[in-house]
Amino acid sequence: MPQEILGMDALTLEDGELFHDRKGRPKPLPVPLAPIADSHGHLTSFHKHDASVAICRAALAGVRLLVVPVDPVDEIPRKFPTAQAMLSWLDEQVERAAQRLDECAEHGLVPPAFPADVPALVDNVRIVAGAHPYGAAELTAEALARLDVLLDSPRCVGVGEIGLDFGPYNELPADVQEQAFRAQLRIAHERDLPVELHIRDNPEDEKNSAHVLAARVLSQEGLPARGCDLHCFTQGPDVMAPFVELGCHIAFGGAMTFNRSDDIRESAAICPERLLLTETDAPYMAPVPLRGEECEPAMVALTVSRLADVRAEAGHSRQATYDACWRNANELLAHRP
To answer: What does the buried/exposed string (b/e) look like for 273-302 if buried means 16 or more CB atoms within 10 Å of the residue's CB?
Structure first.
């Protein structure tokens, strides 16, 4: 049965509904106007989901590109004994997802149809690799060797998530974080890879020091020729402006849909079309109307729909937003150089 294939044993699957709220009411996904990309979705941090099920469900939601961040400090060897073991695990999840999709097709449940040149999701699961700022002090020679293995993978399309975190959960000094940030930016330059950035300010810091320093570092080191993605952007237009000027892509996730996120939506409305990206940052920050649930890549369908609505109010067509998000993700993250 599809319920069992999709990890929904206790739910009723009707008309392809993938999501239900906490009261069991179906929450239909919008019909995608173009293939969808989740430019940043973790698969190794789920508490409730099976990674292969998550890939399968994402495909059924219209996702045709998924970029999975892998951390050589946080995940290896803490979750996987070696970098190669992590890569083998991901291969297994993709293979199992393909089998699940075949079983879904036998029950008449298939992904949305797109042009023939659009790859199936199971053929388009990529990774970026880099040490999160939480692990900046542990970017040792051994960690860099693990990073090299990940960056050598045929799945790898970038360096990330790297950057600066001055939020309440990171006690590392700014200079330690900056050193690791610069070192990994230089690796991206050497390997001709794009970067995905994690930049977080302390909520009490009105000067947005992390973003100011990050922009300065990028200006000094130079933006990688292959590009840059400001992952999980949660700020207003003033903070976004220097990164847009540098040519960074801006990735909007579930936080953009929250009721009190007017500043993020203002940024989304004016972000240049050529720099738009969508993501989930799964398993975190599930979008409305599923806020509070464990996020998964399929939920990016809700985020891109809301993004299209926000930009439609500013005079952009919904189709143009869908097309831009897919095009930009492919140009930045779908292929190795």
So the answer is: eebbbbbbbbbebbbbebeebbbbbbbbbb
